[in-house]
Design a protein that fits this description.
The structure is a homodimer. With about 425 residues, chain A is mainly alpha-helical. The first copy, chain A, is about 65% helix and about 5% strand. Chain A is built from 22 helices and six strands. In chain A, strands 1-2-3 form a three-stranded mixed beta sheet. In chain A, strands 4-5-6 form a three-stranded mixed beta sheet. In chain A, helix 2 packs across helix 4 and helix 7 packs across helix 9. At the A-B interface, helix 11, helix 12, helix 15, helix 16 and helix 18 of A face helix 11, helix 12, helix 15, helix 16 and helix 18 of B.
């Protein structure tokens, strides 16, 4: 790059896929990135822009004029165009849209900008192939050829009536094997899955992956066909959703990447560390309030064991519930589920208590009373961790809060505090201090 | 169902999508499930079978004769057929395959059974549309119509030479707009992404989602086109991958579902609970070995705080690295990354230590020396947790082990033990016991 042999570089770039170029640009410094972007031919530039990291894209866009951006996004499907300009300030967006030559494209983009990006409306593209139920197959094929010019991938051909209402679909296969004179209304398949513009992106993803759909039409409140969502956008939704849940389980609030700078990481991580810290301080004050415990260092040395076990059990239970809720496989009554967790906690608790008692008897020569305390406390703490881990995410889900926040540091911290309280209460009862 | 009004039930089932029927059957007891399966028409039965939970499917299959199963899987695409029978014992599989009437279908299934299910070969289907480069467009369209009969969804038309070697692809759009006399070799697109049979499923998923592909051809070691993978199978791979990572992070070893029975849960959860337990016992023996610490209950009451903070920091660091490795965004030198984590740990550690010192000064009236111990220990423990959390997954990845096992209980436990050791060592140095 530094040698700036333009033509050699341009040649090389022509052979690369835009996703690879984007990956290279993400790694470069800003100056080199702009240089390469300017070198690419326009069609490729626009594709590359869709694949860039947000902050790098922002920098590059701020260096382009409204006219240049308008030219780039004119080459893109409406959904990708919207993804790029949705991040820009409103007046800049208006300026860019005014510069788009194709007025229909501009109108479509303006329409899509209205929708929340986490809804079906925010995911859909305006590009699709639709035919009127009153046409015959020949007209339909002609129209399709014309429309297909603007559509990157034809999946289904949607059939609408005169009011643009979605009636059904045609498959390419059917079209290939039907007489050219047949009326569309006599050959189309009236059963078609669809979503409405305000459906949540998550629900669209669930529907499409359950029914193995590769594209789904989107209708508005009046039943009119307004766009379609393709599976590649859904793959992104599924991946983002999974990443978000994973990060929440690990106690990271925002979407951070390994290569973001230290301040972004601190902002995403410190809040959860503080939650853990307050839990730790709470545990310290609980321990401090049990005067008898303070006089029994053996008892205190088993605190990490109680804490680790309760934490692990709670995280396991909540992770299973969170995943079950995400997959829609959690059904049946809450009480039955809690009953099952109780039994599970009892079995695992007894198993672990037994191992601990044997080891601690030989290794630490704990007295019988202390052993009893540790054993009973372990079983109680495990059962309660399992119940809390199960109950909290289901409760949050019912209240409309993302249950994924309940895993990780949140459940660990509450189980730390609970666990220690239970441990010392049991110790007080058994040892009688 | 209990009233057994066959025709009414059959009518109802006809309107349902097979994925919905499968969902209903998963909820029913075995007797009812078999009853419904027998009621469905054969085409639907086979589709429903692909969507059932594994254990329920196994039960149902064990009640069907080899001939009945052969009839069902004859209706399925080769990849789905293989998914169903791959779980059965080998002699049963041979029996079923012998009963398949369509010998070509049977041969394809036998071929696919050879591949590991986590490779491209295990994901691919034999159904695809391919044309010879020496044909003209007209022959090609005729052939396509014939081949398309067996292919549920046509994505791309693959072009092969006389040796069946993959040469490129044709898009449906191009075919619609090209003269019928043109030779295929003059219109096909020679650039086509492909994978080979032994590529890992994960890598195929990454490639397809990076390049937004909806289908990808699979070639064998000799470059011959042997199958294709469609995006709906990749969606399943991505979801499974994400679920597996999530469960590993939560300390669950196998793929368990919320509705599995108590023993399945215990088997999946107890091993990790035991790891946590041994960590806890390790911590107890460390504490016991510091005689001076045992004499200082204030010091002991801060153990949960140290432990929670180290655990949370370690999980955060490892989660970010694991995700970065999964997305292929971790590049650059290990030392630079560790350096960054060091700074991150220092900043977060100082912030948390400051808050803790202020609170503990007022709340617990800790002496200056104890405060100093806690503060220094917190910073040290956080930095080390961050470094361990970063190093371990990268190290495992380099050794070819799934780095996801390094999150969750594994990192928490090792940080517990490390953290407590560091805490008491610092206490010994500062307080001089």
């Amino acid at each position: 790059i530094d040698s700036k042999s333009d033509s050699a570089l341009r040649m090389k770039m022509e052979d690369f896929h835009y996703a690879d170029i984007a990956e290279i640009i993400n790694e470069l410094n800003f100056e080199h990135a702009t240089y390469i972007i300017k070198l690419l031919d326009s069609e490729k530039t626009s594709e590359v822009l869709t694949e860039l990291d947000e902050n790098i894209r922002e920098q590059i866009l701020s260096n382009l004029s409204a006219k240049e951006i308008a030219d780039e996004i004119s080459e893109l499907d409406t959904d990708d165009a919207v993804d790029i300009i949705a991040e820009l300030p409103e007046d800049r967006v208006n300026e860019i849209i005014a510069q788009i030559d194709d007025k229909e494209h501009a109108r479509d983009i303006v329409e899509l900008l209205r929708y929340d990006e986490d809804t079906a409306g925010g995911l859909m593209a305006k590009e699709l192939v639709k035919v009127n139920e009153n046409w015959n197959v020949l007209t339909c094929v002609k129209e399709m050829r014309r429309q297909a010019e603007n559509v990157t991938r034809v999946h289904s051909i949607y059939v609408v009536d005169n009011d643009e209402k979605l009636k059904g679909r045609l498959s390419l296969k059917d079209l290939l094997t039907t007489s050219t004179k047949a009326q569309i209304s006599s050959v189309y398949i009236p059963k078609v899955d669809y979503v409405t513009v305000h459906d949540r992106a998550e629900d669209v993803a669930r529907l499409m992956s359950k029914y193995d759909l590769e594209a789904i039409p989107v209708i508005d409140e009046l039943g009119r066909l307004v766009g379609r969502i393709t599976i590649d956008d859904i793959v992104d939704v599924i991946k983002e959703e999974a990443e978000k849940d994973y990060q929440l389980a690990a106690g990271i609030t925002q979407d951070v990447e390994a290569d973001d700078d230290v301040w972004v990481h601190t902002k995403a991580r410190l809040p959860w560390l503080l939650i853990g810290m307050f839990g730790g301080l709470g545990a310290a004050s609980i321990i401090g309030s049990f005067q008898g415990a303070m006089a029994n260092p053996i008892l205190l040395s088993f605190v990490p064991l109680i804490q680790a076990t309760a934490g692990n059990m709670g995280v396991q239970s909540s992770a299973i519930v969170v995943q079950g809720l995400a997959n829609d496989t959690i059904r049946g009554e809450l009480f039955k589920r809690l009953g099952k967790e109780f039994i599970l906690g009892l079995i695992n608790g007894c198993a672990i208590a037994l191992v601990v008692l044997i080891i601690s008897h030989f290794l630490f020569q704990t007295s019988y009373l202390v052993s009893a305390t540790i054993g009973v406390a372990l079983i109680a703490v495990i059962i309660i961790a399992a119940l809390v881990g199960t109950f909290v995410p289901i409760f949050l889900d019912k209240k409309g809060i993302d249950p994924a926040v309940a895993t990780g540091p949140f459940i660990t911290t509450s189980n730390d505090v609970f666990g220690i309280l239970i441990y010392f209460t049991i110790a007080k009862l058994i040892l009688g201090f």
